[in-house]
Amino acid sequence: MPTTGRRALGVVQDGHLVRFLHEGMEQEVVARIGPLPAGKGLLGDLVAEPRPIRVAEIADHPASSGFPEAHPPMHSFLGVPIRVRDDVFGNLYLAEKQGAQQFSGDDEEVVKALAAAAGVAIANATLFDEARRRRDWQEAVTAVTTALFRGAGSEQAMRCIAECAQQAAGAAGASFTEPPDGTRTDLRVTVGAGLLEPWHGRSVPPVGTLAASVLASGEAALVADPRADPRTAEAVALAPGLGAMMAAPVRGNHGVHGLLAVAHRREAGRFDRADLEQLTAFAVHAGLILDVADLRRENERIQTLEDRQRLATQLQDTLVRDLFGAGPVPAGRRRPRHQPRGAGRPRRQRRRAGPDHPVGAHGGVRDGATDRAGLIPGPADLACDVTSLRRMASCVSRSSRS
């Protein structure tokens, strides 16, 4: 490895320099320089065309764009891309070789070998990180499934989905937005957690926003810098610390349940395509789980109605039996043709249906004179009616508790 005064590693994603790690410069100098390189000039040329670049004077290279005012002078430069399989992970940068005017061909070969070894190590670390992320998302799916099948309500289910997605993605905030329904035309943020808590309860316009765009297209979206995207201008105003974010539709078999979004704090992290794929898969699982939960709640509602219908039928039979002495004759137990109508009744009931009862032997109602003669129902009859009312109240009470 050649001896140098400045060393740096640039991380590249989607053709852009997203991270810049450096060594060999004092913190006071770094603070005076200001923002880190954004991938322009000579560094940008190496990002656009990943190939080794070795120059004796940086200022003489056609792609050079100069240095900030407080930046210390640099002359010699050597840059080599780091490849992970067929993709470019980033670049190694060396500057200011000590003991010579410029880097040699041997220096370039050594750095290329170092970049290849770094590529292998990064590939292994990437595989491990992907396995960890898949495990985290699978645990999130399991947690949501368990919560919904334990009987969580609609809003509790949405909050569980948002919070599990936030934890699995390692994000600072998450939200769940419901689409328009028959009572409103705009979108509504049902859940806002963490960094996105200021969104909770807000209405979102049905056009011109990230949520509206994702729901209209049905495709998940990744926004690296919400401040530069007009679709997220209002979102940034509500959460000024908003950084990279992802959003995916939560679809079921019968329509869209809503929109799931997760976000990092500004300059605290980034999402990549693997993260977006994991969020999309999680949203699909969440939509199917919400479908099953809705079906389960509907079945429970139907079962409750059937139970109430059965109790109502039992109550009706009980009242008929207690108030009139007999209920409906079950099928298969018809009265014999020559059996008297009152033969099957208890003795007390036969007496009540006899000539002395207000309802006479021929079924006619006695007049007021007969009632004044002392044939108004006595205490025993009233006690029977009170007992029937108590049974009715008991059945109604049991039906209400069910």
Largest sheet: 6 strands, antiparallel
CATH architecture label of the largest domain:
2-Layer Sandwich
The number of domains: 3
The H/E string reads: EEHHEEEHHEEEHEHEEHHHH
Helical proportion? Answer: 40-55%
The best one-word shape is elongated
CATH superfamily descriptor of the largest domain: GAF domain
Mean pLDDT: 79
Strand content: 15-25%
Strand order of the largest sheet: 8-7-6-11-10-9
What name does the CATH topology of the largest domain carry?
Beta-Lactamase
Tally of helical runs: 10
Computed over alpha carbons, the radius of gyration is: 40 Å
Low-confidence stretches: 331-335, 344-376
Structural class assignment: alpha+beta
What is the CA-CA span between the terminal residues?
79 Å
Number of strands: 11
For this structure, what is the CATH class of the largest domain? Alpha Beta
